[in-house]
Amino acid sequence: MNGGAEREGSGAAGSARREPSRWRRRISTTLALIRANPTGRVALKIIFGALGAIVVCVGIVLIPLPGPGWLIVIAGLGIWAVEFHWAKRLLAFTRRHVYGWAAWVKRQSLGVRFVLGSVGIVFVGAVALFSIKHSLGIDVIAGVLHYFATH
User: Fold this and answer.
1) Phi, psi of 109, rounded to the nearest 5 degrees
2) Which of 66, 86, 64 is nearest to 77 (CA)?
């Protein structure tokens, strides 16, 4: 009797439909209780709106710097998605395209993945050097060239 349910629940498709964890159910219940009150509903929208805006703004500031700028922007979008339907749709769109890109890269040959990784590393390095030069005023490339010229 349970064997069929267990077989259906295994694999990639089954993992998406598993029952939410205890803490997730508790949070959902708490949010539903708060939303039941009109004042609570408005307060939640304001709180999640402000918190999401802060996280998104920090992420946007960090995008040109080396680090997880886009990941922080997506986390802020996830915070907004708790209360705003448009953010939930945008987050689903973003996930779909990121997973699609990752699946496409996995299907490519080792040579193509090496080229993509190399381009990514060069891009991150260029952004890092550009950020250091324009935010801290340190020209790393000129310093390295000067070092090789004098030693």
Assistant:
1) -70, 165
2) 86
- Which pTM was predicted? 0.59
For residue 105, give both structure tokens. Answer: 């890269």
Interval 36-77: pLDDT, tens: 888 988 999 999 999 999 999 998 888 777 678 888 999 999
What spatial distance separates the first Cα and last Cα of the chain, rounded to whole Å? 78
